[in-house]
Amino acid sequence: MPFENTLTEKTKLIDSGEKQDLMNIQMVTRDSERSLPSTLKMFEALENSIDCKFRYIFVENGSKDRTRQLVEQFLKTRTGTLQTPENAETIDDLVRPQRIAAARNTGTKFLDPKAKWTLLVDNDIYFDVHALTALFAENPTENGYAMVCAFAELAKFNKQTQKLQPLGHYYDTWTFTLNKNGKDLQIFWPHCVFEDCPVCQNHVQGRKLKKEGVIEVGSAYGGFALVRTAGILNKGVAYFSARVGDSCVMEHRITCELVPFCLSLAYNTGQKVVVATKSHVLYDGTNY
């Protein structure tokens, strides 16, 4: 594990002076037998370190390994549900962003609206409890945030140390966009826009961001994000993939499902989508 995953005593999650007693955790997973055990241990660390109840929403479809069994075993002693995406019989005919969008929308229907916040997590993200507390330290309600994303750094597994080695690169460039005065929305794949990135330096002209503070964006994700539950449940908000022009390099010219989600979230709630760089997680990009 790349992080220390426990606190000496249970800590409270405080959002703008209000203690959070319940949180949804939503995950889409498929053929994740290799990474899922570590993810479930990280969830267990949250339970042991955070003074809050968690409700888990897993969506799994068609795994050929033990993914489903691992989730079922985990949920035996916890509050939550394991679902199959709607229209599962046709979902494999869609391109990847469309498949994931269908799965995420299925999970939305099982969120507990009494939980003010929902944590979206990918099963190949490595995090500790401080990644979550750092998101709440930004006082999301007071600052008008609909979605607060962690800074997700690309890493590779070092066989000698048996640890993930951070590479200094914001990995989820499929979703990261900047929104300047409601205009100038651009997707930066395959490069990120941080000036100290050793992978992407000198590749993105005029978009050199410092990795500090809170950055308002049109869309982002990074595999670990806190989203206002009422925003997700808003009828105008959904995950979907939009077809884009030739100038935008995306999978089959289809956007990542998080781009329209973030844009519809901000539009329908009037609140911001941001990246909080003090919240740090790692993505296992060994095959990157």
Kindly estimate the percentage of residues that lie in beta strands according to DSSP.
25-35%
Mean pLDDT: 88
The total beta strand count reads 14
CATH homology superfamily: Spore Coat Polysaccharide Biosynthesis Protein SpsA, Chain A
Secondary-structure element pattern, one letter each: EEEHEHEHHEEHEEEEEEHHE
Q: How many separate domains?
A: 1
Structural category is alpha/beta
The CATH topology: Spore Coat Polysaccharide Biosynthesis Protein SpsA, Chain A
The best one-word shape is: globular
Q: Helical proportion?
A: 10-25%
Instruction: Report low-confidence residues grouped into runs of 5 or more.
Output: none
Compute the CA-based radius of gyration.
Answer: 18 Å
N-to-C span: 19 Å
Return the CATH architecture.
Alpha-Beta Complex
Q: Profile the largest sheet.
A: 10 strands, mixed
Number of helices: 7
At the first level of CATH, the class is Alpha Beta
Please characterize this protein's 3D structure.
With 288 residues, the protein is of the alpha/beta class. It has one domain: Alpha-Beta Complex (Spore Coat Polysaccharide Biosynthesis Protein SpsA, Chain A). Helix content is 22%, strand content 29%. The chain contains seven helices and 14 strands. The protein has helices at residues 36-49, 67-75, 88-91, 96-108, 129-136, 229-232, 258-269; strands at residues 14-15, 18-19, 22-29, 53-60, 80-83, 117-121, 125-126, 145-158, 163-170, 177-180, 183-187, 214-217, 224-228, 272-284. The strands form three sheets. Strands 3, 4, 5, 6, 7, 8, 9, 12, 13 and 14 form a ten-stranded mixed beta sheet that branches. A two-stranded antiparallel ribbon has the order 1-2. A hairpin with a 4-residue loop joins strand 8 (145-158) and strand 9. It starts with 13 loop residues before the first strand and ends with a strand. The model has no long low-confidence stretch (mean pLDDT 88).
